[in-house]
Amino acid sequence: MAEELRAAESADDEYDESQPDVVTDEMENMYLNFCLDESTYSIEIRYVQQIVGMQEINEMPEMPPYMKGFINLRGEIIPVISMRIRFMKQEIEYTDRTCIIVTQSGDHKTGLIVDAIKETLTIEPEDIAPPPSTGIHASPYVSGVAKLDSGTSVMIDLKLLFRDTDIPQ
Questions:
Q1: Model-level pTM?
Q2: What is the reported pLDDT for 24?
Q3: Phi, psi (5° rounding) for residue 55?
Q4: Per the domain annotation, does 168 fall within a domain?
Q5: Over the chain, what is the mean pLDDT?
Q6: 169 belongs to a structural domain
Q7: 51 within a domain of the structure (yes/no)
Q8: Structure-model confidence comparison of residues 124 and 160, the more confident one
């Protein structure tokens, strides 16, 4: 009986150890595309925890304009930023397609308010060009431009986006 229990525990350990590799392989080169105005942006799907509809956002004093406040998502307090304001776009009224992408980087969750979710897709590294050189200071969180069948998408590095903001890390 003890041997059977050890064998079962050993089998469980092997399953648990291999699970993250399977998830990582499945998520490699996978991106979530979202829209702001007519522009498309992509973030790595591995950072996306969930997508929720708009809900009450509690404001916090003395925060930058793009830091809209926080939401209470099933008892978890999550800071929320407006990607429109963060990218220096004009703020508009929320629509029925406006949503919050809840992301996680390390131990920190952050909600990103976007106009709409476009799709999830695989973008191969060879389909990503470096950010265009404009001669002026480029946004450090733009990691490239993806060439898609439907046009282009600006690739956003969430770790650099959060490092460049006042969101607690």
A1: 0.80
A2: 64
A3: -150, 180
A4: no
A5: 83
A6: no
A7: yes
A8: 124
Q: What is the mean pLDDT of residues 141-157?
A: 92
* Distance from C-alpha of 153 to C-alpha of 16, rounded to nearest angstrom: 35
Question: With pLDDT > 70 as the criterion, what percentage of the chain qualifies?
Answer: 79
3-state secondary structure the chain: CHHHHHHHHHHHHHHHHHHHHHHHHHHCCEEEEEEECCEEEEEEHHHEEEEEECCCCECCCCCCCCEEEEEEECCEEEEEEEHHHHCCCCCCCCCCCCEEEEEEECCEEEEEEECEEEEEEECCHHHEECCCCCCCCCCCCEEEEEEECCEEEEEECHHHHHHCCCCCC
Let me know if residue 32 belongs to a domain. Answer: yes
pLDDT at 58: 96
Counting the structural domains of the chain, the total is 1
Domain span including residue 152 = 2-163
Which residue type sits at 50? Q
Question: In this structure, what CATH number is given to the domain that contains residue 88?
Answer: 2.40.50.180
